[in-house]
Specification:
533 residues; Cytochrome C Oxidase, Chain A; 17 helices; 0% strand; binds copper (I) ion
């Protein structure tokens, strides 16, 4: 492995094939095959997309601050809801978890790098043009797709070239996700250190292993759905066109066969992160490790047979509705096991409440609310009245913001000292947490009331009776949005500061007994691909 060896060999004459081991600057980031560099790229990319999607959310909430049209025309408003959703799902949350996977999985299983480092580089650099396509679709004639992130026909069929850009973006993102998943599965199954059996792996590794299988199973399904949209739009097919013998509800079936597992793709790695953090700050081993693994796998398997709960209103047979209702409710069982285990881990622990722990507890309380509103929506007759209302919007934001996003914050604060060598500002972290919790709940809890009162989602204007809670919701959204600038500042300040930190400052967090981490993983830096035999 000569290519990885010489550390600082610039400028000593002979630049043969082995002397360029340490490219710097742009070259380093463009050609990197190092899992840490690629993890860093994913995380910064995700943060940039988070602010982009967040800006769209604030435009939406500004328009909805009071009744009447203020700032935006209705078509642009609809485009904002579409691209906000796509950017947050595919640009912010998923890449953040791939960033975590790159940073943590090799080190947690004692591997030198990912199994396919060059493919790893390609996975990242595919995500960038896809994101550019999505955002650029605002600037073409007709504006970005106005269908919502679900891209339902028949509306989507008639819209402009932006839809084709979105379809291409989805294809590229799918290819990237599949390559990333192959990489992660191969790494976990083949590159574990001796003695690291599957049931000794840290839970983050387990949750990502299962997530990667979900991705490989459903991204091709999404690709098939949008390809049929493409041929319906341009090549005269009628997959989703009733006049040609097709069926628009078939798109919904196919889309949600992807879409429901997609929710777990965004949330399972969160379970892994929280399972690492709670034991560290409760100073107790994780309660029920094996049941956590089995619960995660059960959730993943069940996620394939519940998609119909997104389409109770399309007129499926009663037996179909009942099946999807009961199957959906069944997911509460393994999820309940996990919530129980996290609480049991904290029970009688010597807990402290640093920022990563605060965000983890925030996750625990608020994600549970999202889970409960999911149970409410799983009840077919209830869903039929709440379908396409703000209750649904409230539900999935509790799952995805206080679920996935809060865990990302928890994980970033938890591992930032290891990633940067520096300690972040704890006071600022806590302020970020509290403003986020207050802003988030103010923004989204009232949306339950709006939905119960019948306010439809994806509308730029609304009847007067919805005015009060919309105002509070917008105020909360702006508090939440602007408090994320504290996060950005804290991360940058941490990187630039000289507050040298232990690699893991959290007392005991790296001990085998508490988090199932192996004896400290090899921590050397590989600048080029390791040789896989
Ligand atoms: Cu679902």
């Amino acid at each position: 492995m000569s290519a990885a060896a010489p550390a600082h060999d610039h400028g000593h004459g002979h630049h043969d094939d082995h002397a360029h081991a340490h490219p710097t600057g742009l070259k380093r980031w463009l050609f990197t095959t190092n899992h840490k560099d690629i993890g860093t790229l994913y995380l910064w990319f995700s943060l940039a997309m988070f602010f982009m999607g967040g800006t769209m959310a604030l435009l939406i909430r500004a328009e909805l601050f009071k009744p009447g049209l203020q700032f935006l025309n209705p078509e642009f408003f609809n485009s904002l809801t579409t691209v906000h959703g796509l950017v947050m799902v595919f640009g912010a949350i998923m890449p953040a978890w791939v960033g975590f996977a790159n940073w943590l999985i090799p080190m947690q299983i004692g591997a030198a790098d990912m199994a396919f480092p060059r493919m790893n580089n390609w996975s990242f650099y595919l995500v960038v043009p896809a994101a550019i396509l999505l955002v650029a679709s605002f600037f073409v004639p007709g504006g970005a797709a106005a269908s919502g992130w679900t891209l339902y026909p028949p509306l989507i069929i008639q819209q402009g070239i932006a839809v084709d850009m979105t379809i291409l973006a989805v294809h590229i993102l799918g290819a990237s996700s599949i390559m990333g998943s192959i990489n992660i599965i191969t790494t976990i199954l083949n590159l574990r250190a001796p003695g690291m059996t599957l049931m000794k792996m840290p839970l983050f590794v387990w949750t990502w292993l299962i997530t990667a299988y979900l991705l490989i199973a459903v991204m091709p399904v999404l690709a098939g759905a949008v390809t049929m949209l493409l041929t319906d739009r341009h090549f005269g097919t009628s997959f989703f066109n009733a006049a040609g013998g097709g069926d628009p509800t078939m798109f919904m079936h196919i889309f949600w066969f992807f879409g429901h597992p997609e929710v777990y793709i965004m949330i399972l790695p969160a379970f892994g992160v929280v399972s690492a953090i709670i034991p560290a700050f409760a100073r107790k081993p994780l309660f029920g490790y094996a049941s956590m693994v089995y619960a995660t796998a059960s959730i993943a398997i069940l996620s394939f047979i519940v998609w119909g709960h997104h389409m109770f209103t399309v007129g499926m047979p009663a037996a179909g509705n009942l099946f999807f209702m009961y199957a959906t409710m069944l997911i509460a069982v393994p999820t309940g096991v996990k919530i129980f285990n996290w609480i049991a881990t904290m029970w009688k622990g010597s807990m402290t409440f640093e920022t990563p722990m605060l965000f983890s507890i925030g996750f625990l309380c608020l994600f549970t609310i999202g889970g409960f509103s999911g149970l409410v929506l799983a009840i077919t007759p209830v869903d039929i009245t709440l379908h396409n209302t703000y209750y649904v919007v409230a539900h999935f934001h509790y799952v995805l913001v206080s679920g996935a996003l809060f865990s990302i914050f928890a994980g970033v604060y938890f591992w930032l000292p290891k990633w940067t060598g520096n300690m972040y500002n704890e006071k600022l972290g806590k302020l970020h947490f509290w403003l986020s919790v207050i802003g988030f709940n103010l923004a989204f809890f009232p949306q339950h009331f709006l939905g119960l009162a019948g306010m439809p989602r994806r509308i730029p204007d609304y009847a007067l009776q919805f005015a009060e809670w919309n105002m509070w919701s917008s105020i909360g959204a702006f508090i939440f949005g602007f408090s994320q600038l504290l996060f950005l500042y804290n991360v940058i300040e941490c990187i630039r500061s000289n507050r040298k930190s232990e690699q893991m400052p959290w007392e005991g967090a790296d001990s085998l007994e508490w988090t199932h981490l192996p004896t400290p993983a090899p921590y050397h830096t590989f600048e080029t691909a390791p040789v896989i035999k």
